[in-house]
């Protein structure tokens, strides 16, 4: 074969490789029926399961996507699903049966049950085990196995930790056994031989539970750590129908799709589907099993001179150019063709130079196509994320008082080292925050938001625009954003000294929270919230005031952050009606009952923060009595009993002026009034706190808190220039703030 023939063949193979790569990138196998959602929260929901009856194989496989505290959770029957496998298992969380002796009170036994109402689901015998942990504990597992009763159990006995072996569950501190096949409905009972009286010092409890294999490995530490654990992961097997493969193969109810096979369950009470060898995907969909390109995986045709070719459901090996098949040794081998050394040398050199030239041309063309595709994709994301709408608002706003820069994606990728996990400084329900350094040396906090729903784009952009106009020394500052990525990126100033919550709970010798500092911080927070309610361009309800959202800058000044659930309202509005969102312990009881959030709801949350500053206590704590687990209720009860100084923080009692402390406590009590109308406004709170403060250590007087937006505009410089597909508005502020989330209307 001549030089040009070899060159043409190399060209053909390069083209095949490029087309194969493009096809592989373009094809993604679906897991759900057309027009059906395939995810609830972070859990994928593959067919035959579905989020509605029309999207599942039958009602037994309908998963309810329930929302709780801002997070979506899949629920099947009475079980919360954490993972669904097309290999016939799904994972859930199962309660732990506990039997504890505590403060003279002991329950003779504890029971918990699971009732699976459909024959399609059974407890997996291959994936689970029954575990009993304790030192004078016996537990039993009762259930049904194909309509037959079943009972088994084991006892765990020990008098000390001396003979316990970490990783061993053979009876000393821990015992276990396998789950029988076809196990469906069960009850677990756990009890103590002698009320734990001999082992209370190191093991006051006994536990019994079903756990997924590999998730529980016994150690001595578990004797106490299991007291705080409520659930363990458990695996259930699922099957389709009630008959065997032979029974249903020719029936209309048979669901295995093309290029798949049927597999009987262990109990012959149903079947599953599996893609044939050489295929992968969802075998329950009509065309869910797709051909696998075996040649892309580990090298299968690995003999000298061999090449690989993909076939439908399989692959084949062949001898490449310059080699031919030889079976003289009883094995298919590829050996070189017999020709002169000079011809082979010329062919080799020609092929090498031709291939090098072709590869160079291919790489150049590939880079050009790639850059065009990236530019097109960035424009698509920019439009989808509301970039055009933001540009329109910026260009039409003659009185814009705050600079906001639209960054390009490469600048933020460089700033965060391509969003390295080492740069992550926080995660939340609405995004992940990275620490970054801009090209001008500024340290920033860059948040990668979760996907914004298409119907909420206008609200999302409007809230970014409003947030960019908030100018207050004690409120988080938005520097800019990037809308040309798959999800929006928001750039905020960075705060180095953590949250108020951390400083209230952790001793800090370099910066102790003195009474004067606590009073100053409360004044700064109150002033910021009053500004949001009254002095911003549009009144803003924060809706998540808490100590973890109060950040401290390099001078330990308070900064109000996390506007992820905030809402801007019309000036003539008195409330907004929304789904209840917030943090337990800070949530206004009146808002919880009516779903109507008012400015007094923020006052209630601030009142809880004020009590935290006074007491150093957590807003919710299991160490307090059940009636006083909520700090607000605990505080109000203590005030009514006239025992305020019994719950104050030691530093507050030691350093605080008694009259000042009592005044602040009475103000907190008024903020926590159950009737919102009887709470003070944030303006009244800020004024009263300023009045309580006896000395002014060079800080701003309250009159500074009452500046108007027009006065701020007079002291701001506004300019913007058009550059490519984004605007940049120069900023006059340089404070640093660590953000959590942007505004988002609900």
From TrEMBL:
Keyword Secreted in annotation: no
Positions of transmembrane segments: 345-369
Keyword Signal included in the entry's annotation: yes
Keyword annotations of the record: ATP-binding, Disulfide bond, EGF-like domain, Glycoprotein, Kinase, Membrane, Nucleotide-binding, Serine/threonine-protein kinase, Signal, Transferase, Transmembrane, Transmembrane helix
InterPro entries (UniProt xref): EGF, EGF-like_Ca-bd_dom, EGF-type_Asp/Asn_hydroxyl_site, EGF_Ca-bd_CS, Kinase-like_dom_sf, NOTCH1_EGF-like, Prot_kinase_dom, Ser/Thr_kinase_AS
Location in or out of the cell: Membrane
Superkingdom of the organism of origin: Eukaryota
Domain Protein kinase: 419-696
Example of a GO MF term: protein serine/threonine kinase activity
Bilayer topology: Single-pass type I membrane protein
Reaction equation(s) it catalyzes: L-seryl-[protein] + ATP = O-phospho-L-seryl-[protein] + ADP + H(+); L-threonyl-[protein] + ATP = O-phospho-L-threonyl-[protein] + ADP + H(+)
BP terms from Gene Ontology: cell surface receptor signaling pathway
Residue ranges of domain EGF-like in the record: 247-290
SMART domains attached to this UniProt entry: EGF, EGF_CA, S_TKc
Name listed for the protein in its UniProt record: Uncharacterized protein
Biological classification of the source: Eukaryota, Viridiplantae, Streptophyta, Embryophyta, Tracheophyta
């Amino acid at each position: 074969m001549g030089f040009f023939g070899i060159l043409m063949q190399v060209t053909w193979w390069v083209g095949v490789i490029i087309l194969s790569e493009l096809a592989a990138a373009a094809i993604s196998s679906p897991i759900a029926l057309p027009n059906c959602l395939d995810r609830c929260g972070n859990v994928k929901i593959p067919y035959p399961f579905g989020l509605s009856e029309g999207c599942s194989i039958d009602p037994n496989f309908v998963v309810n996507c329930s929302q709780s505290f801002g997070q979506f959770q899949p629920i099947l029957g009475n079980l919360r699903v954490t993972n669904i496998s097309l290999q016939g298992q799904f994972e859930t969380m199962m309660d732990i049966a506990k039997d504890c002796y505590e403060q003279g009170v002991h329950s003779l036994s504890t029971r918990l049950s699971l009732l699976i109402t459909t024959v399609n689901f059974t407890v997996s015998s291959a994936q689970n085990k029954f575990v009993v942990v304790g030192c004078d504990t016996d537990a039993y597992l009762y259930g049904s196995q194909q309509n037959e009763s079943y009972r088994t159990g084991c006892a765990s006995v020990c008098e000390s930790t001396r003979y316990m072996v970490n990783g061993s569950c053979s009876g000393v501190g821990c015992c276990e056994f396998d789950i029988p096949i076809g196990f469906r409905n069960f009850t677990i009972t756990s009890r103590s031989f002698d009320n734990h009286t001999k082992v209370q010092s190191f093991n006051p409890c006994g536990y019994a539970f079903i756990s997924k294999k590999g998730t529980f490995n016994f150690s001595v530490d578990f004797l106490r750590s299991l007291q705080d654990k409520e659930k363990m992961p458990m695996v259930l097997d699922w099957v389709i129908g009630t008959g065997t493969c032979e029974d249903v193969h020719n029936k209309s109810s048979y669901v295995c799709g093309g290029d798949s096979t049927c597999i009987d369950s262990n109990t012959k009470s149903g079947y599953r589907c599996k893609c044939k060898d050489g295929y992968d995907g969802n075998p329950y969909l009509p065309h869910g099993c797709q051909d696998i390109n075996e040649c892309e995986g580990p090298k299968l045709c690995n003999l000298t001179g061999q090449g690989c070719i993909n076939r439908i459901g399989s692959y084949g090996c062949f001898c490449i150019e310059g080699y031919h098949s030889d079976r003289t040794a009883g094995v298919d081998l590829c050996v070189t063709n017999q020709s002169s050394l000079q011809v082979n040398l010329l062919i080799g050199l020609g092929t090498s130079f031709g291939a090098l030239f072709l590869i160079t041309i291919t790489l150049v063309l590939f880079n050009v196509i790639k850059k065009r595709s990236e530019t097109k994709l960035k424009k698509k994301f920019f439009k989808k994320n509301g970039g055009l709408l933001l540009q329109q608002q910026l260009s039409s706003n003659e009185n814009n008082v705050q600079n906001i820069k639209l960054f390009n994606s490469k600048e933020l990728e460089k700033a965060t080292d391509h969003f390295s996990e080492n740069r992550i400084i926080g995660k939340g329900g609405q995004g992940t925050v990275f620490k970054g350094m801009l090209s001008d040396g500024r340290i920033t906090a860059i948040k990668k938001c979760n996907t914004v729903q298409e119907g909420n784009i206008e609200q999302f952009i409007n809230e970014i625009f409003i947030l960019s106009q908030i100018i207050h020394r004690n409120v988080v500052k938005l520097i800019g954003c990037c809308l040309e990525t798959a999800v929006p990126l928001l750039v905020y100033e960075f705060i180095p000294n953590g949250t108020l919550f951390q400083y209230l709970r952790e001793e800090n010798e370099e910066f102790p929270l003195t009474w004067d500092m606590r009073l100053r911080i409360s004044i700064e927070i109150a002033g910021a919230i009053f500004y949001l309610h009254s002095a911003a361009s549009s009144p803003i309800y924060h809706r998540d005031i808490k100590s973890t959202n109060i950040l401290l800058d390099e001078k330990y000044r308070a900064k109000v952050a996390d506007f992820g659930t905030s809402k801007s309202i019309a000036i003539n509005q008195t409330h907004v009606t929304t789904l209840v969102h917030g943090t337990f312990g800070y949530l206004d009881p009146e808002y919880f009952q009516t779903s109507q959030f008012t400015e007094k709801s923020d006052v209630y949350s601030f009142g809880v923060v004020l009590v935290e500053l006074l007491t150093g206590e957590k807003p919710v704590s299991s160490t307090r009595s059940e009636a006083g687990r909520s700090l607000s209720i605990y505080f109000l009860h203590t005030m009514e009993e006239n025992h305020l100084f019994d719950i104050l923080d030691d530093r507050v009692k030691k350093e605080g002026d008694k009259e000042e402390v009592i005044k602040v406590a009475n103000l907190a009590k008024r903020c926590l009034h159950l009737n919102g109308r009887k709470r003070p406004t944030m303006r009244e709170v800020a004024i009263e706190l300023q009045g309580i403060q006896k000395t002014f250590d060079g800080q701003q007087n309250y009159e500074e808190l009452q500046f108007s937006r027009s006065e701020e505009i007079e002291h701001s410089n506004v300019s913007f220039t058009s550059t490519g597909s984004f605007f940049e508005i120069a900023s006059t502020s340089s404070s640093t703030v660590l953000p959590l989330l942007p505004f988002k209307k609900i």
